[in-house]
Amino acid sequence: MIHVCSLSRLQQTVEDTGARHVVSLIGDEARLQRPASVAPEHHLWLCLHDISAPLEGYIMPGEQHVATLLDFVRGWDRKAPLVVHCYMGISRSTASAFASVCALNPHRDETSIAQTLRRASPTATPNIRIVALADRLLGRQGRMITAIETIGRGVAAEAGTPFRLDLE
Q1: Fewest CB within 10 A of the end CB: N or C in the chain?
Q2: CB 153: neighbour CB atoms within 10 A?
Q3: Nearest-CA neighbor of 15 among 36, 44, 45, 40?
Q4: Considering only CA atoms, which of 45, 51, 20 is closest in space to residue 32?
Q5: Model confidence over 97-106: pLDDT tens digits?
Q6: Is 85 helix (H, G, I), strand (E, B) or coil?
Q7: Is 71 exposed, middle or buried (0-12, 13-18, 19+ CB in 10 A)?
Q8: Residue 112: per-residue pLDDT
Q9: What order of strands is seen across the sheet that includes strand 2-6?
């Protein structure tokens, strides 16, 4: 299973879930400390910001970021949970968790995954650029984008509450 949280809840979420793999989607604005129980080779840090269009001084999610995420997730042995986090636990992390479940379940309907995401997190507002890049890389022909558009923006929050997204 995949757990999603904010940076402030990372250490506690890893401890509570027994996760041994972590994906960090944090721009260079945050100081990130890998949880001690996670081996360096099981920690993927993608340095990017929560933007969907170019903005000077910020790192926009790119195809290589998403390809690296998908490769990392496919290499996860699933013996212990995976934690995906960003600064707030609302946009980059939820998009990446959605993309990960789509990648690991190539025949599962995108809309059902998006609806499961919404039930798990009322605040989830997946970064549409990450979703669009994953859709293209996974050959989902726009269905991932449509599924996320269908669930709409999440409710406003200062940070997302940690949640679990099952793979099946």
Answers
A1: C
A2: 13
A3: 36
A4: 45
A5: 999 999 999 9
A6: strand
A7: exposed
A8: 96
A9: 43-46, 21-25, 82-86, 2-6, 163-165
* Spans of the chain below 50 pLDDT: none
DSSP 53: S
Please give the single-letter amino acid code of residue 3: H
Query: What is the pLDDT, as a whole number, of residue 30?
Result: 63
- Whether 90 contacts 160, CB under 8 Å: yes
DSSP H helices in 3-162:
10-17, 63-75, 92-104, 110-120, 128-138, 143-151
Q: Would you state the pLDDT for residue 31?
A: 74
3-state secondary structure at position 154: coil
**Angular region, 12: left φ>0, alpha ψ -120 to 50, beta rest:** alpha
